[in-house]
Amino acid sequence: MTKNQGKKVGMYSLIILFFAKFDGEVNGFQPLVDQLALFLLKEKGIRVLLDEQGYGNKGYTMSKAALRQQMIALIMPMVDNACAWALTVGNADMQDVFGIVETDFKLTQDKLIILVDEILEALTDNVVALAAYNITLVKIGAAKTAEANYIAAKEIPKQKRATKKTVTASISKEIKGADKILTIIDRLMSGEFGGSMPSMVLEYTNSRMIHNSVNRHTMVRLHVYRDEEHAEPIAHANISIASIDRHDETNIDGEGEIIQFKGGDYLILVKAKGFGDAEIPFSIKRGKQIAIDVVMEANVVFGNVVIDGKPSVNATVQIDGTNIVEKTDAFGNYALDEVPEGMVVIEASNEKGGRVSKTIVVENGKRLRVDMVF
Asked: Which helix (H) or strand (E) holds 335?
């Protein structure tokens, strides 16, 4: 895919978000709805080609983290309105489904998709009752498309130059088709809403622009994860460059950045509760931007639990005052991840009511063995 194609795809994403936002306003104008449906099909086809070419979560298209955030951004307004509906009508089951906040989406991909599917299914099942709350099948469909794009975004092996060239040509053809549909949508937007809703048309026009990125500021962007597969981001990690007294905190997608500093050689420090500190040296030229992936090493307390000289199976081991808890396996072994640094109390309890505890000192980035005996 070329850079210009990448800019087009980014613009298409903004247009989809625009129509999701103004779904209620445009939904009654059938010619526009029809053209929008054709455009969504074209955009979906382009995404399939991008996945073939390896741009699912890197390159000039939206990153996997950005696709995830786009999916959540489409779902959360509907969740808030649906929760208000459930509270109003006293539907306890739907209150449980919709009574969530954005931080509840901080899950591994498999668990996140299960949650999203449950929400979208509940929205679809109650769409008639939710119509008064500005929730429609079009909005739900846009969220489902965003979910599909997020799931599809994955690393694939590098392909041969000839294959990439063929796919790039196919992308070019699909983009021409999408642009032709957008030309019709432009006319329909102007003709139907230019006089009555000029501010909405202006927002559409802004979404329709291809924005050229200008790298005026030196920037280092970090993606912080708890696993090598980069499936579990770490939020609220602190990133800092001590030599220039600059710092930031990662968001829900594990992203943080430090901008506007001179080029040179630096050492960036990453700290996260329950993990060993990470130090990453890097070099950067003035006005350039770089991205760094960081996988944190969790603080681990592990060991064996014994009762009457035998392994204590299915015993509960917990760090007191936290939700860090694990059951022992068939050999009495356990392992607790992301244990906070410092002095903590570890407690083991068994099914017979036995209980034993120890005070331990956890050091960042280290594994500590603690055996327990009833």
From this structure: strand 333-337
First to last CA, the chain: 63
Residues 129 and 45 in one domain: yes
How far apart are alpha carbons 302 and 362 in whole angstroms? 11
Last residue of a domain, one of 295, 319, 349: 295
Question: Average pLDDT for consecutive 10-residue bins of the chain (374 residues)?
Answer: 69 86 88 91 82 47 71 91 92 90 81 91 92 89 86 52 63 87 90 89 83 60 85 87 87 82 88 90 85 89 90 91 89 91 91 88 88 89
Whether residue 225 is found in the same domain as residue 356: no
Burial of 158 (0-12, 13-18, 19+ CB in 10 A): exposed
Please state the length of the chain: 374
Residue 231: which CATH number? 2.60.40.1120
Rounded to two decimals, the pTM is 0.43
Let me know: does 218 contact 261? Beta carbons within 8 Å. yes
Check if the beta carbon of residue 120 is closer than 8 Å to that of residue 140. yes
Strand 300-307 relative to strand 367-369: parallel, antiparallel, unpaired?
parallel
